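Hmm, what's this shape?
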Amino acid sequence: MQLCCKILKFAVLHMPKINYDALGIGASLACAIHCALLPLFLSSLPIVGINIINNNYFEVLMILIALTIGIYSLLHGYKKHHHKIFPIILFSIGMSMLLLKQVFHTYQVVFLLPAVIMIISAHYINYRQCKLTAHCHTDHFSHD
């Protein structure tokens, strides 16, 4: 039984780590690029039958991806590292503004920029807080 636990612990310690905050920042930036730059540079896509500029399914998919990554990374940082609620509040406000952008299409620009800034800031703050408190979390089996 001890050998099995040692093998499992070795496997967990040597698994590649995914930085979910960096992934969240990347997803938020991809969303911002999609929403802000894609209409400017790729306005000819409908000519060839591709329409992702005002495609509600694509918009909702991007929001759900950002929400899923954000919830996971921010809750992980909160529970396992820094126990600070500010990044979660900032992220929640940003995601709420993204949802408002979907509902009130006339004000998309008004909601989009602050939403993206808040979401990226929340991930960045969470990342910095996790790095500052990483000193006491070297054992992957603590806090479970």
Q: What stands out?
A: Residues 137-144 have pLDDT under 50 and may be disordered.
